[in-house]
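re: ur question from yesterday

yeah so i grabbed the chain u mentioned. its 116 aa long if i counted rite. heres the sequnce exactly as i have it in my notes:
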Amino acid sequence: VQLVESGGGLVQTGGSLRLSCTASGFSFDDYTIGWFRQAPGKERELVASVTIGGVTKYADSVKGRFTISRDNAKNTVYLQMNSLKPEDTAVYSCRRFALGKDRDYWGQGTLVTVSS
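ran it thru and got these structure tokens back, copy pasting raw so excuse formatting
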């Protein structure tokens, strides 16, 4: 099982980025996938998740600004981030949620820095 994030970088306040999480080694469309983030000195938090049926959930802090989507044909989950703020600065990681006896897995993370 492997999850590889990409798309992070440096952006100015108000800008946009699109993160990608590409998975391999398992049946991608059987699992809920989520994006998490961890800022320096803070706990990791759930940003958004998408179920196998396409049901999405968002943290209150990103509602209306971020959009999570999945492309099962490409084994990829995207996080479109608009109207970025300095407080969005963090390492963003994707997670394959556990299912039954199958444990969860994490990607290595990608750094997003929003300058003021």
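noticed a couple things. The first strand starts at residue 2 and ends at 6. also DSSP finds no helices and eleven strands in the chain.
anyway ttyl
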